[in-house]
Amino acid sequence: MSIVELNISELLKEKKAERKLDLIIQEDGLYDGMEYIKLLRPISFVGILSKLENDFTLKGKVQGVLELICSRCIEKFPYELDITIVEKFTNVYKEDEDDETIFIEDNVIDISQVVQNNIILTLPIKRLCKQNCKGLCQQCGTNLNKFKCQCKNHDIDLRLAKLKDMFFTD
Q: What domain of life (predicted)?
């Protein structure tokens, strides 16, 4: 994902401040740790960075369209992204700080990294092109959403499939 960095040096001079953000993150895709996910539409972020003392809060909306692969039929499909982000930052190390507060280095917040992390965390584990996706035939691999295969469906429990050869001979 392209780097969109926000320099907060000016905000550090004030005790309380706010900055409105309206950003477009132009990139081909992102990597979620397992697969490369293509962006069909650039990611937009609209929000506010607010400061109180040494603590910063980033609140905003992330929108875009990703291309995911269905877990059942392995077809690509568009996934509408519309999430809300709330992240806390600080530039002063505190021992009792919670784990969710991000430490700011060199007075720069990498907005693109924050957005990417939040996108990855909100992606569904089971990615389906539609709720009633039929998937692939277990015998011939035909996409059952598009075609009806000619395989004989014996409804065999795959864990017991080896046993069928013991009892049925041709």
A: Bacteria
Residue type, 111: I
The reply to whether 21 and 74 lie within a common domain is yes
- The domain tally of the chain equals 2
Q: Of 85, 101, 122, which one is at a domain's C-terminal end?
A: 122
Paired tokens of 155:
């409804």
Q: What is the DSSP letter of 92?
A: S
Taking phi first (over 0 means left), then psi (-120 to 50 degrees means alpha), and beta for anything else, what does residue 104 get? beta
Burial of 47 from C-beta contacts in 10 A (0-12 / 13-18 / 19+): buried
Residue 8 has pLDDT above 90, yes or no: no
Tell me the pLDDT tens digit for each residue of 74-103.
Answer: 999 999 999 999 998 887 777 665 677 777
Our measurement of the distance from residue 130's CA atom to the centroid of its chain's CA atoms, rounded to an integer in Å, reads: 18
Both tokens of residue 130? 């539609």
Find the domain containing 58 and state its range: 5-122
Residue 124 sits at the vertex; the CA angle it makes with 41 and 49, to the nearest 5 degrees, is 60
Residues 67 and 106 in one domain: yes
Which pLDDT band holds residue 154 (cuts at 50, 70, 90)? low
